[in-house]
Design a protein that fits this description.
Layout lengths: L1 H4 L5 H7 L7 E6 L1 H13 L3 E5 L22 H7 L2 E5 L12 H6 L4
Parallel strand pairs: 1-2, 1-3
Length: 110
């Protein structure tokens, strides 16, 4: 952030803290085709994908889904165990408030 404020490229700093996506577990909070597309892309890049419905209900991918595997989890588990989280759900009454201060506080550190 300091480099941005100084309008300089911090390549050496970024290189020290960069991680390969293939070494990460990425959480996806989404439903349907959007979630399946994100998960397929992440897996194609070598990442482990874990997902949850935005309502913290059952995992949205069922046993008959082409992308289904044991990666489904509760929202709390996804936030606590993933290295990064992608939130891609529609802004509808059932998803408003899905990610707030309490949920952000649960995100895995490091």
């Amino acid at each position: 952030i300091a480099a941005q404020a100084e309008h300089r490229w911090a390549s050496a700093e970024l290189a020290r803290s960069a991680r390969l996506i293939s070494s990460m577990t990425i959480g996806v909070v989404a439903v349907g085709a959007v979630a399946r597309s994100i998960i397929a892309t992440l897996r194609g890049l070598g990442a482990t994908a874990q997902w949850a419905e935005p309502t913290d209900a059952r995992p949205f991918l069922g046993p008959g889904d082409a992308h289904a595997d044991p990666g489904g989890a509760s929202l709390a588990d996804v936030l606590a165990h993933c290295d990064a989280v992608i939130v891609a759900c529609p802004r509808i009454p059932s998803t408003i408030g899905t990610i707030g201060k309490a949920e952000l506080a649960r995100i895995k550190r490091g």
